[in-house]
Amino acid sequence: MAASGQSVVVPRNFRLLEELEKGEKGFGDGNVSYGMDDGDDLFMRSWTGTIIGPNNTAHEGRIYSLKLYCDKDYPEAPPRVKFVSRINLSVVRAEDGVPNQHVVRESGEREGRPPTL
């Protein structure tokens, strides 16, 4: 057990397994889901995500696909994110579907959630 004032560092793959379980079971309003591209990837680097546009927005009913790549320094550094589906957001580059760097929130808090856009 960690001494008072110290935090326990959760290993990268444990954190990713926890996030995989959340993505497979679903959470929130069900508009976001994600999972691994290849179940045999021991390093759990390549992921696929889906976002269903929320009701009462310009994106209502639209389905957006994303690719996420969690490098070896995740969760200290955010994953790389790319929209596979074309999306019209000022914070996403139209030419390649990559969000602007300042948009992907740093995931330096190991106890936090996956980065959000």
Automatic annotation (TrEMBL):
<protein>
    <submittedName>
        <fullName>Ubiquitin-conjugating enzyme E2</fullName>
    </submittedName>
</protein>
<feature type="domain" description="UBC core">
    <location>
        <begin position="11"/>
        <end position="117"/>
    </location>
</feature>
<dbReference type="InterPro" id="IPR016135">
    <property type="entry name" value="UBQ-conjugating_enzyme/RWD"/>
</dbReference>
<dbReference type="InterPro" id="IPR000608">
    <property type="entry name" value="UBC"/>
</dbReference>
<dbReference type="Pfam" id="PF00179">
    <property type="entry name" value="UQ_con"/>
</dbReference>
